[in-house]
Every structure is written in C-alpha cells, then in structure tokens.
Amino acid sequence: MVDARILNTAAALRSAILALAAETPISRITVSDVTRAAGINRATFYAHYASPSALLANALTGELDDVRRADTELRLDGELPADLVTRKAIADTAAHIDRHLAIYRLALGDPTDGTIQHVLSSHLTVSSLKHLSESVDPGDVPGDPDLVAAFVANGLVGAIAVAVVSDHWDKDRVADVLMAMMPDWWDRPAG
Question: How many CA atoms lie less than 13 Å away from 58 in the CB half-sphere?
Fold first, then answer.
C-alpha cells in the first residue's frame, strides 16, 4: 500500500504542473514555480522528478497510457471492427489533447522545448509497434516495423502539431483527418 503522503504529493505536483503549463511554456516554468504552486519544498520535488518538463511528461503520459490500455482491451475483445477500434484510439488521443489544449498549444508552439512532441511521439510509436506486432499480418507491413511505427507516429505528431496551433482546432475534425491518413493495411486483420 502506498503512503497517503506520497499520493497527496503526487496529486499536488500533477495539479500544479498542469495548471502552470496551461499558462506558461514549460521551458519557462521553474522548480520554484512548481513547488510554490504545489505547496511542497524543493527536496520533495527532486525526490520525485528531475525537472518541470519531466513532471509534465509524466502527467500527460499517464493519460495517454490509459488510451493505449483501452485500445488494447478493445482489440483483444474483438467485438468491434478493427477500423472502429483505431478510430476510437485516435479520437481518445484527440480528446486528451482537447482537455489539455492550452498546454499543447503552448508546448508545440515553443521551439525551445520538445517535451510534448517527445511525449506524443513516444506514446504513438509504442502504440504503433504494439499494434503492428499484435494486429497486423507481418506480410502487410511494408518494411522494418520500427521504421514503420516511427513513420506513422511522427506523421501523426506533425499533423497534430499543425492542428493544435491553428485557429481552427476541432478534436472531431482532427480525428477524422488523422484516421483518413492511416494506411489501408493498418486495420487488415493478422493471419
């Protein structure tokens, strides 16, 4: 069982970084800003994270991991057609971004910090590799799965970055466009 103080500290840190990053680019947020907002001291902060960027990455990655888990469960369940499972995963990712739109806009528009781009790229690359290894016939994958996963993931990140910083963000429209960009063989069943 985890000590309640640790859970409270983690919740305070997560809340503080999400609030701060919605108002200020992560590259300009200091440890002092976070500790003040969270009501903790610097030693406690450094016991958990190396930097505000690492804290923000952790906070957002947890939510994105939930999207991946839901996607995996739906794929294993097998009741929905594969293309609808992919559509739901993309829509859930867009909904996550929409919930944190201010953070994503500031971060993806900040040329001095790649934290959020790395978070999205890592998440989508791992998700793509998992999908390729579990749900796609290896004969349909047009090359090295690592390269294919990186290509798909970073193409999605690039499109998301453009959509997020535009004046016309619409999570449903973005999900539709991202889904349309997926390769035809992506949702062809394995085996």
Answer: 15
